[in-house]
Amino acid sequence: MIWGIFFIFIFLLWISIRTFSYGKWTWDKKNWLGAIMVFVIAALILILPMLSFYWAER
Fold first, then answer.
1. Are the C-beta atoms of residues 23 and 39 closer than 8 Å to each other?
2. What's the gap between Cα 50 and its chain centre?
3. Is 24 within 8 Å of 35 (Cβ atoms)?
4. What pLDDT score was predicted for residue 57?
5. Using the 8-state DSSP alphabet, how is residue 58 labeled?
6. pLDDT band at 5, cuts 50/70/90?
7. C-alpha angle 39/16/22, rounded to 5°?
8. How far apart are CA 48 and CA 58, in angstroms?
9. Are 39 and 20 within 8 A, CB to CB?
10. CA 58/CA 13 separation, integer angstroms
11. Which of 11, 26, 28, 31 is deepest in the core (most CB within 10 A)?
């Protein structure tokens, strides 16, 4: 079980990093509101599944 969670975490981290890099590109293009929303989405991509794993284990 722990290896499955580890690989899912790595996959979600990779997706979050890719999304974060798009947010930086958007920030550089002076679209600040869009960049902030992309940063929020990148954080949620990583946080929400980890919280669901945490609450499922309880």
1. yes
2. 10
3. yes
4. 73
5. -
6. confident
7. 55
8. 16
9. yes
10. 23
11. 26
* pLDDT value at residue 39: 96
Return the closest-CA partner of residue 23 out of 11, 36, 10: 36
pTM of the model: 0.79
Neighbours of 42 (CB within 10 A): 19
Count of residues in the chain: 58
Q: What are the pLDDT digits (tens) for 7-49?
A: 988 999 999 999 999 999 999 999 999 999 999 999 999 999 8
Structure tokens of 44? 């949620």
Q: In 8-41, which positions are buried (b, 16+ CB within 10 angstroms) versus exposed (e)?
A: eeeebeeebeebbebbeebeeeeeeeebeebbee
